[in-house]
C-alpha cells in the first residue's frame, strides 16, 4: 500500500520535507481555508497540488471534501450545496486528484472526552469515557431525554461526576468534545467562538425528527446526485465509518457495522461508491470483527486508515498501540496487501510523545507518535510482502 500522511496545509507545524525524510509517499489533505459548502476552484486545487509535488510527494487523497450539514439533514439549500460539491469534484478530477474521503456523521465528526489520557510511560493518547460523555450530555448540554440513552451504572457514575467535577473540568470537556476535536476538521465550531455549547445545541436542533432511515435516504440522495461526475472523472468516493460506531447525542449513525456498510454500498451500487476502511473507528465497536470486514470489503475499499483501540466492558475505549488491540492490524494488512495492494493508507492517531508535547499539534496528529506508528506499520508491510513471495 502507498504510505500516506494526513497534513493540514502550509500552516501545519509538520513540514513536507520532514515527511519525505521519514518515507511518506503521498499526502492526505484538503483546502482547509475554504468554508464548507463553497466551491474548490481548479486554480486553488492546482496551486495546492503543485506545492505538494514540489517536495517530491503527491496529493493522494482528499480528506475531507466535507459534506455540509444541510445535505445530511435535507435542508432547503441542499441541492445548491450538492451542485457546489459536484463542481469541486469536477475540478479535483481535472487536476488529477481522484480519491475523496468524506463522512456522513451528523454534527460530530469524531468524539473523545480526553485528548491527553496519560499512559504509565508518560505518553498520552485519545480516550472516550462513556460516563463523562453522558455527564456532558445531561449536565452541560442539558439535552432533553439524554438520561434514557444510558443504563443505571452509567447514570450512577454521572451523579458522582456531578459532585466532583469543577468548572475547569467542565470547560475541558466542552473543549475536548465540541471545540478542539471539531475545529480543525469540519469548521462547524472553532476555537474562539463565544458560547460553543449554544452553537452546538443549534446544530443538534437541525436534526430534530431525522431518524436513521431518513439520514440513510439523505445519503442515498447525495450519492445518487454525484455519481455521474465521479464516473466521468474516475473519482473514488470513500465514506469514513462513524467514530465512534454507535449513536451519540440522540443522533442517528449509519456507518457503524456490517449491515450499515452493506446498505450504503448497495443503495448506490456503483464502483465509485466505496469505503474508507478505518480500523480504529470500526474496532471501537464490539459488534465489529475488523479482519472479517476487511476481507469482505477489500474490493470496495478505496483508502485505509490504520490504528487500533482497546474497548472496555463499560463502553470506554482508548487508542491502542498500532500492533495491539481490536484493530488487529497485522491481519488487516495481510488482507489488503493481498487483495488490494495499490490502496493509499495512512497511520492514524499516534500517541503524544514527550518531545511532541509543546509543539501544538492537532489532537491525535503528533509527529513523533505517528512516525513511530508508521515505522511499525512499514515493518509489518515489509514482513507480509516478504513472506508472501
Summarize the structure.
By secondary structure, the chain is of the alpha/beta class.
List the topology elements.
Elements: E1 2-6, H1 16-21, E2 26-29, H2 42-53, E3 58-63, H3 69-73, H4 78-95, E4 99-102, E5 114-118, E6 124-128, H5 130-140, H6 152-164, H7 167-183, H8 196-205, H9 212-233, E7 236-239, H10 258-267, E8 273-278, H11 279-283, H12 290-297, E9 301-306, E10 309-311, E11 317-319, H13 329-339, E12 344-347, H14 368-388
Parallel strand pairs: 1-2, 1-12, 2-3, 3-4, 4-7, 7-8, 8-9, 9-12
Antiparallel strand pairs: 5-6, 6-11, 10-11
Describe this structure in words.
There is one protein chain. This protein is an alpha/beta fold and 389 residues long. It folds into two domains: 2-110 and 210-388, Alpha-Beta Barrel (TIM Barrel); 114-205, no CATH class. 43% of the residues lie in helices and 14% in strands. Strands 1-2-3-4-7-8-9-12 form an eight-stranded parallel beta barrel, surrounded by four helices. The chain is globular, with a radius of gyration of 20 Å. The mean pLDDT is 94.
Amino acid at each position: 500500500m502507498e504510505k500516506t500522511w494526513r497534513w493540514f496545509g502550509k500552516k501545519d507545524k509538520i513540514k513536507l520535507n520532514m515527511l519525505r525524510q521519514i518515507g511518506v509517499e503521498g499526502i492526505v489533505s484538503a483546502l482547509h481555508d475554504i468554508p464548507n459548502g463553497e466551491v474548490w476552484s481548479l486554480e486553488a486545487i492546482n496551486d495546492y497540488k503543485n506545492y505538494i509535488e514540489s517536495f517530491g510527494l503527491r496529493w493522494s487523497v482528499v480528506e475531507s471534501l466535507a459534506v455540509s450539514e444541510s445535505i445530511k439533514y435535507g435542508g432547503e439549500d441542499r441541492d445548491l450545496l450538492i451542485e457546489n460539491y459536484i463542481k469541486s469534484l469536477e475540478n479535483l478530477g481535472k487536476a488529477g486528484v481522484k480519491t475523496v474521503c468524506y463522512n456522513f456523521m451528523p454534527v460530530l465528526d469524531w468524539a473523545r472526552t480526553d485528548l491527553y489520557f496519560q499512559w504509565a510511560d508518560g505518553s498520552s493518547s485519545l480516550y472516550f469515557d462513556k460516563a463523562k460523555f453522558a455527564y456532558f450530555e445531561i449536565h452541560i448540554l442539558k439535552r432533553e431525554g439524554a438520561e434514557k440513552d444510558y443504563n443505571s451504572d452509567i447514570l450512577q457514575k454521572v451523579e458522582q461526576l456531578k459532585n466532583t467535577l469543577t468548572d475547569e473540568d467542565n470547560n475541558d470537556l466542552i473543549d475536548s468534545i465540541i471545540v478542539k476535536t471539531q475545529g480543525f476538521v469540519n469548521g462547524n465550531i472553532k476555537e474562539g467562538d463565544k458560547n460553543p455549547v449554544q452553537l452546538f445545541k443549534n446544530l443538534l436542533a437541525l436534526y430534530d425528527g431525522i431518524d436513521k432511515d431518513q439520514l440513510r435516504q439523505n445519503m442515498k440522495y447525495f450519492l445518487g446526485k454525484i455519481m455521474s461526475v465521479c464516473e466521468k472523472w474516475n473519482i473514488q468516493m470513500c465514506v469514513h465509518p462513524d467514530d465512534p460506531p454507535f449513536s451519540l447525542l440522540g443522533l442517528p449513525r449509519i456507518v457503524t457495522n456490517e449491515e450499515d456498510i452493506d446498505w450504503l454500498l448497495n443503495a448506490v451500487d456503483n464502483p465509485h461508491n466505496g469505503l474508507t476502511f478505518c480500523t480504529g473507528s470500526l474496532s471501537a465497536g464490539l459488534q465489529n470483527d475488523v479482519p472479517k470486514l476487511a476481507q469482505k470489503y477489500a474490493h470496495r475499499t478505496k483508502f485505509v486508515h490504520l490504528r487500533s483501540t482497546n474497548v472496555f466492558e463499560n463502553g470506554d475505549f482508548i487508542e491502542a498501540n498500532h500492533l495491539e488491540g481490536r484493530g488487529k492490524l497485522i491481519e488487516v494488512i495481510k488482507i489488503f496487501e493481498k487483495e488490494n495492494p495499490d490502496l493509499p493508507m495512512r497511520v492514524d492517531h499516534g500517541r503524544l510523545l514527550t518531545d511532541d508535547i509543546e509543539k501544538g499539534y492537532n489532537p491525535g496528529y503528533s509527529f513523533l507518535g505517528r512516525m513511530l506508528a508508521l515505522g511499525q506499520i512499514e515493518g509489518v508491510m515489509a514482513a507480509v510482502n516478504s513472506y508472501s513471495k
